[in-house]
Amino acid sequence: MSSKSLGVLYGVLGVVLFSSKAVLVKLAYRYHVDTLDLLLFRMLFSLPFYILILFLIRKKSTETIVLPKDYVWLFLFGFVGYYLASYFDFLGLNYIKAGLERIILFVYPTIVVFLSWLIFRQKITRVQLTAILITYLGVLITFWEELDMSGNKVLMGGFLVLLSAITYASYLVGSGWLIPKFGVLRFTCNAMIVSTLCIMVHYSIAGNWTFMDYPWPVYAYGVAMAIFATLIPSFLVSAAIKRLGASNFSILGSLGPISTILLAFLFLDEKLTLGQLIGMLVVIFGVTYLSIQSKKRAKD
């Protein structure tokens, strides 16, 4: 198998496994698990693996000198990109379906474009603006049909998941210059450890201390989220990006909403209406169009 074919295989598997997170969260919520408890399980169960990886790569030198202030930025981006984004996402899944959550999260590339304009004054091209309008039209189509059925709950859930997309996009925009300093593996592991510490502090302040009182399936879903929806796909995606490049991989990301909706249909019995299908396809078209045009501009 060629390097590119292997990259596509890694990318598809990584996207599908990442997409399973929302379904696992919804399955755990059937046992009335607290949002903060579930997030704590996900991070604690994955923490030993990230510490082990840091230990294994400890002797590898970084390409540039890492300054003390870089660690401050690392903490900030771990807080925003992994802790806040995950917390808002898990909260939102209390109110909306897994499929809708993935469609809303999928708009983060358009938020990256907007934040780059707002912070770095990077011009928004006509192509980017067209892609953004198409994408949000698709979200509106999907969202509107859900509003007819669930009203305020969908508004609350959609807003929380949108906050998750915004915080994750902020992390991507802000950390781009920092990741090369640490290296992808070292940066990711440290950021995940920061996120776990933030969740532990949050839990020590606001938790109800009943995390040992749940039935065993809750802990099983926590382990599955940690390993199959967090750890393994993070390395599969890194391997895919290494073989395909970030721009090519971003096109594979279009599989995310589709795989989530299919998994939600299989395991959660979530139904997909014609209007929601149309909205999903419009969103995927908008983001894919943006990715393809960005790739063309990078070549030019």
UniProtKB/TrEMBL annotation:
Domain EamA: 6-143, 156-291
Transmembrane parts of this sequence: 38-58, 70-91, 103-120, 127-144, 156-179, 191-212, 218-237, 249-268, 274-292
Subcellular location: Cell membrane
Pfam families in UniProt: EamA (PF00892)
SUPFAM superfamilies with a match to the protein in the record: Multidrug resistance efflux transporter EmrE
UniProt keyword terms in alphabetical order: Cell membrane, Membrane, Transmembrane, Transmembrane helix
Membrane topology summary: Multi-pass membrane protein
One annotated Gene Ontology cellular component of this protein: plasma membrane
Claim: Transmembrane helix is one of the keywords in the record: yes
Keyword flag Membrane: yes
Protein name, entry field: Permease
Species assigned in the record: Flagellimonas marinaquae
